[in-house]
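Methods — Computational structure assignment.
A single polypeptide chain was analysed. Its primary sequence is given first, followed by the predicted tertiary structure written as structure tokens.
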Amino acid sequence: MARKIVALSLLASSASALVAPAAPAASSTALRADAKALVPDGIQAPTGYFDPMGIADKVNDKTLLWFRAAEIKHGRVAMAAFLGCVVTGVGAHFPGAVDLDGTSFASLADGDLFAAWDKMPADGKQQIVAAIGGIESVFEAQKPHYLQGGTPGKVRLTGTTAGVLEAKYDAEKLASMRNSEIANGRLAMLAMAAFVAAEVIPGSVPALTNLGFAGTYAGGLPFAPF
């Protein structure tokens, strides 16, 4: 397990830029085809503007902003998940017990990559989901909302709209950092999809099979996490 994860851990180092995109202008409900103007971040080499199914031509401004917010959220979760897989795969863990019954952190990290979640006590799973829900509630409650002129992906824990990074870097650097976050999030989403497939379906991802992913996982992920 350690060998296959170490081989992929170099990807984790790139998934570190968590910068929200610039706030778009207030959106309307009219259909529009120009997604490049509304959500320009992420349009970069090697694909450039990529919408082969023409989805942007079929939705309104608010839906495009919702898509962008969802992409940023899922990218951040995938980057955190990938890092967690790396840490678990190399055998790193907290000392001591994770609950009052004596379930050790070491026991969670022992076995298949995704078995750690299956071994997690039910109360622990609920606490993790509750924490994520709390963060999401703060994000959705911010004013202005990202569908009403706010910034998709920007989470403020205070009442101020001023950003620390905005005061530190110029516009060009901020744009580069936003593009890095989106690119790394997309890469992490693909990586986690590959991890799941390789753990569940033998031989589905040959590159990972060669690194030791046997496809023998029989737990509830990803369809029944509880």
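Note: The longest helix spans residues 171-200.
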